[in-house]
User: What shape does this take?
Amino acid sequence: MGRGRRYYSKEFKLKAVELSNVRGNAREIAEELGIKADLIYRWRKELSSKSHLAFSGKGNAQLSKEQMELKQLRKK
Assistant: This one.
């Protein structure tokens, strides 16, 4: 039977991306960490596109102040 979904902390993701950038080989880092290389590639992309909003946790997108205000206005 499968393991179920695994969650990785923001710190783990940042460290994995940092290691892969420094050493240049995402597949090797992924093997050492026991994860799939696709995760590192995805985390790199997310970090480069969202930087300070990346890795908000468990699939819930972290919103900027403007986005949060807009969401609250729409809710009203």
Notes: The first helix runs from residue 10 to 23.
